[in-house]
Amino acid sequence: MTTYLESLRSGLHRAMSSDERVYMFGEDIADPYGGAFKVSKGLGTAFPNRVRSTPISEAAITGIATGMALRGMRPVVEIMFGDFLTLCADQIVNHATKFRGMFADQVSVPMVLRTPMGGGRGYGATHSQSLEKIFLGTPGLNIVAPSHAHDPGALLAKAILEGRDPILFLEHKMLYPADLLDPRGPVSVETVDDGERWPTALLRNFDSGMPDVTVIAYGGTARLILPLMEEFAAEEIAILTVLPSRISPLPEDTLVEAARRSGRVVVAEEGTGGFNWGSEVAATLNDRLFGQLHKPVRRVSSAAAIIGASAESEGDVLIDEADIEDAIMEVLQ
Q1: pTM above 0.90, yes or no
Q2: Which of these is catalytic: 127, 148, 150, 172?
């Protein structure tokens, strides 16, 4: 089996082998260290002139990559922890995403920013957050967060080689050692395309008929849903889980159709509650399915609180299987 991390590393190698304009920048990414989570390990040896470790300045790294993209290169930036995206937010929001519009579509910024997100490893308050909601809805920015039901390496290679606008590529830390899902396993996996190369994975714990509940999630939250789907299958409760690889902009048509099938929807994410991805998904479904759902959309997220470093304090904040299970049972009643 291929792990999530191995898939990403393979995707990076494929992109760098395919196009000499692809460069990688980040803190401690060159060999022998190969990055904090070892995703880039070996790439510095294979491509010594195009994999560069940088000083500790996320703003400078992102600004340099933006300039390179404007000049026709395809830079890949690794931000060591997703929490540090706050340090390059100005370069993302006020520069990289704006230039194509400011210059009447005469330039493009094909830049990919990779970063690990999420908790579960006891790294504490400033290295365990899911901060993607800060960037959701930013014009000109695509946010991609593949789960292990996708092929993350293939998506990363496409983002690097085919993107025209900046792409924020989120990798959940807890998925790195996980095997990619076998589509022939106890939970079936099907992918549908939104027409813009960003597939949505549809997971089913049933063979035929309509689902009882639709669960919508992304990224690392998928690892919490899979065991529940197997448990609910034993109870003959049919679950359809929808995992878009691109979370902003939303694949609206796919989400609406999946929600319509059951009329009962749970939206789950690891980000903190309030003004988040689930809010936008719920609002979208309400706008397009008003009066057609059997229950209000149930949103589940981590608590709006600071994450501690101990397992107990992490558990008090982060979303878990029990939270999602309770939400599913609630919409079934």
Answers
A1: yes
A2: 127
